[in-house]
Amino acid sequence: MGVVLTHSAKFCCNKKIFNPYRLNNKDKEKTSYFVAHLIEKTAEWSPYNKVDILKGEDLRFVEENLSCNAAISWNAYLKMTKISCPIHGNKDQCHL
Q1: CA neighbours within 13 Å on the CB side: how many for 87?
Q2: What's the predicted TM-score (pTM) here?
Q3: DSSP category for residue 72
Q4: What is the pLDDT of residues 70-85, one digit of tens each?
Q5: Which residue pairs, CB below 8 angstroms and at least 24 apart, start in 12-15?
Q6: Euclidean distance between the first and final Cα of the chain, in Å?
Q7: CA-to-CA distance for 73 and 32, rounded, in angstroms?
Q8: Which residues is 35 bridged to in the sheet?
Q9: Nearest Cα to Cα of residue 84 among 75, 73, 94
Q10: Domain total of the chain
Q11: Are 60 and 25 within 8 A, CB to CB?
Q12: How far apart, in Å, are the Cα atoms of 81 and each of 4, 9, 29, 62, 89?
């Protein structure tokens, strides 16, 4: 299980963090978001590749804003983004 970082603000569950991060070794630092759900890592995904380290204020923000419900699969997260997240609402209700 882990927290997923992204550069996408497309979904209401993606919360903006304070500092920009690289998501892979080829990336430049960009505005970053985290998926506010604990995501189950599947065996099909490649091993984690540590690229950057969250700064203290971002780590605290993630810990304070991570949904405390049970971990969900990536597919369950994608389904919620198409309808409405029971915790974060839909894009029209979003407060990023």
Answers
A1: 17
A2: 0.73
A3: B
A4: 788 888 888 877 776 7
A5: 12/81, 12/85, 12/88, 12/89, 12/90, 12/91, 12/93, 12/94, 12/96, 13/37, 13/67, 13/77, 13/80, 13/81, 13/85, 13/87, 13/88, 14/96, 15/61, 15/65, 15/96
A6: 24
A7: 21
A8: 14
A9: 94
A10: 1
A11: no
A12: 15, 12, 25, 19, 9
Q: How does residue 42 score in pLDDT terms, banded at 50, 70 and 90?
A: confident
- Maximum distance among all Cα pairs of the chain, rounded to whole angstroms: 35
Length of the chain: 96
Q: Are 26 and 8 in contact (CB under 8 A)?
A: no
Tell me which amino acid residue 66 is: L
At 7-29, the pLDDT tens digits run 888 888 889 998 888 877 777 78
Query: Which residues form the domain of 31?
Result: 1-96
